[in-house]
Design brief:
The structure is a homodimer.
Chain A: H1 2-16, H2 23-32, H3 39-50, H4 59-77, E1 86-87, E2 90-91, H5 93-96, H6 99-118, H7 124-138, H8 143-152, H9 160-185, H10 191-215, H11 218-221, H12 227-230, H13 236-240, H14 242-261, H15 267-278
Antiparallel strand pairs in A: 1-2
Helix pairs in contact in A: 1-4, 2-6, 3-4, 3-9, 3-15, 4-6, 7-9, 8-9, 9-10, 10-14, 14-15
């Protein structure tokens, strides 16, 4: 998995090499190559591999997904949004550079994700099919809607149902699409399974975050802990407590495993990456 | 021309109707439908018409271009960027709503421009060709590069050559691509003429802005005048004076006219829209 992450990082660097020198390029490189889990690109590649597909021709799609994820983090951290100083253990983009550069770097990464897919050596019909699903997931009815709802409930109590809706859009959409696109490329009729796995995984991931915000170590997380409490934010932990939240995470992973076994794929590969996610400490 | 603007506005509204209700949609609608010149979509449509093409099948491309332009204005106006309070005679997006909503509305418009073209009923090869050129122009080697350079020279003297480079990217790229795309759709070999016209027009437009910033009436402009002087910003007017700047604008329009007459098109239509731009008071 580490070698695959390195391969993704090398390809991200290669894609950045076409960008004109300047502060925005520096900021894009700083945030995109920050030490990270590369969860979404890895899921995309693992699903391709589970279908016995050679992923190399599609590496740029993995990179485009990571660009979209990184742009959303940069903008999320801005003073006008969550106003965070730390991300992945390092100063956030606007702290390391400045606010204007961070705004432009985010815009530039979203735009570069589009250029990246357009420039690929794959069939134009496939490009259009991939982009149609990807930019539905990242757009104003997907990830951006989740961010809007997240902000709306910043200082307001949210119900479990509302939290689930926020996470579904804010985190689930991009994780789900990473797996859906691999099935689309492999021309497999497993779309609904990956959709379900993606959204369950996204929710589990988010509840883990809520738990780590309370019990995690700042050093390992690379960001401030206890910030949800400081912000009077409703989370699974504030609504259910830690024990029930942990149960919910295990239940969601159980659903994922069941869906994985409903498909004719290399199950071992997918279980491998799910286990890494389940056991994460940051 | 007014009827065409109305048609563009109606189509923009229609494209927004698929967006989930919420503050971000309100902000997108507020900024996208603000009274504006619709210069880029009009140029796109006029060039199509000058080729005797029916523009109706391509109206969504005109709308996508306007979405990109509007997103760049929303982000440009943010406190972390130019910190402007007025735009098109009304409070800027972050003043009318809030900063977080303005950031997300800008992101959402860039993303929606992608969805809009992908959803069109035209050939996938044409979609890919159009998007490839469009998102090169709007991206980090095009418009965003211009914004970065503009910020870099905020409190620093720029030479005429440097100003020209800024305007070329910041304003010229999106104006040029509006006309290039029409030639691409019409399958005409006039690409280099429209490129030249686009960049000359972009520069003329920007110098007009500099002049209006000094001699314009705040009410007509719909934004604060004298802000370049307040910001100690180098402009054509500070470097050349008003008279020489006006001469430069006329010279650039002269170039445009000559390039227009080098092509086998309906010249009258293009002259009509160029004249409107040349005589603008806001």
């Amino acid at each position: 998995m580490d070698q695959l992450k390195e391969e993704i990082n090398q390809q991200l660097l290669k894609l950045l090499s076409s960008v004109k020198e300047g502060k925005v390029k520096e900021a894009m490189t700083y945030s995109l190559l920050a030490p990270g889990k590369r969860l979404r690109p890895l899921l995309f590649i693992y699903v391709l591999k589970a279908y016995q597909m050679d992923y190399h021709a599609y590496l740029d799609i993995a990179c485009a997904i990571e660009m979209i994820h990184t742009y959303s983090l940069i903008h999320d951290d801005l003073p006008g949004m969550d106003n965070d100083d730390l991300r992945r253990g390092r100063p956030t983009c606007h702290k390391q550079f400045d606010e204007a550069t961070a705004i432009l770097a985010g815009d530039a990464l979203l735009n570069l994700s589009v250029n990246t897919i357009l420039n690929m050596s794959i069939d134009n019909d496939l490009k259009v099919a991939i982009m149609t699903r990807l930019y539905e997931a990242s757009g104003v009815n997907g990830m951006i809607y989740g961010q809007q709802q997240d902000l709306a409930f910043e200082n307001q109590n949210a119900s479990l149902q509302q939290l689930q809706d926020i996470h579904h859009h804010k985190t689930g959409e991009l994780i789900a699409v990473s797996m859906q696109l691999a099935a689309l490329i492999a021309k497999k009729d497993d779309y609904q399974y990956w959709t379900q796995i993606g959204f369950d995984l996204g929710l589990a991931f988010q509840i883990q975050d809520d738990i780590l915000d309370v019990v995690g170590e700042e050093e390992k997380l690379g960001k401030k802990v206890g910030s949800d409490l400081d912000n009077h934010k409703s989370t699974y932990v504030t609504l259910l407590g830690i024990e029930e939240s942990q149960k919910k995470v295990e239940e969601l992973f159980q659903n994922c495993y069941e869906n994985v076994y409903s498909m004719r794929i290399n199950h071992g590969l997918i279980l491998q990456i799910l286990t890494v996610i389940l056991k994460r400490v940051n």
